[in-house]
Design brief:
Layout (H helix, E strand, L loop, with lengths): L19 H20 L4 H5 L9 H21 L17 H5 L5 H25 L5 E5 L6 E3 H27 L5
């Protein structure tokens, strides 16, 4: 891949004056695009390169965040688990999404992430149309045993991406020196 040609559209700032749902979705989209800009232009070797002593890679981050999208918006929100997560060998490798990512091509990883995000967007749009941010999930949160609101899921997703984008910054700089948004 040509590092000089970004595949991801520019990030756009979240609106400074908007309703709550628009603001949350804009920040989530900003962080999604930030992650994609960190993986843009990298070949398989670049995506698989860790920053020791960690074994974390950009490939693993991309697949992990695809799994996180599907976990919260399909499995927890809709109680509709999707593949490959539903049949992954979690009992043999609890970090399966991270380790299996090393065997996939950049195109496969991006397609999987794109599909997960597309499902998430459809789910959120339907949920907002059906009742807004106060609705609760079909499944209960594994830690509290209580369902979570759509608002909570969206805030959690912003947090998840923001945390991992910090990792992506360091990993990308270690691969080729690229810094910035």
């Amino acid at each position: 891949m040509d590092v000089d040609t970004p595949l991801t559209p520019e990030r756009t700032e979240a609106p400074h004056h908007a309703d709550e749902a628009t603001t949350l979705l804009a920040f989530l989209d900003l962080h999604r695009r930030t992650l994609l800009r960190k993986v843009d232009g990298l070949d398989a070797a670049g995506l698989r390169r860790p920053l020791p002593p960690s074994t974390m890679t950009l490939a693993g981050l991309l697949k992990h965040l695809a799994m996180v999208e599907d976990n919260w918006f399909s499995t927890v929100w809709l109680d509709a688990p999707v593949e490959p997560w539903a049949s992954a060998p979690w009992d043999q490798d609890r970090d399966w999404e991270w380790t299996s990512a090393l065997d996939e091509t950049p195109e496969q990883l991006r397609a999987q992430w794109d599909a997960s995000v597309a499902r998430s967007r459809r789910t959120v749009a339907a949920a907002l149309a059906a009742g807004g941010l106060d609705q609760v999930s079909a499944r209960r949160h594994h830690g509290t045993g209580a369902p979570v609101s759509l608002r909570w899921v969206l805030v959690h997703m912003v947090e998840e991406y923001a945390r991992h984008n910090g990792h992506a910054d360091l990993l990308r700089e270690a691969v080729d020196g690229a810094t910035g948004e």
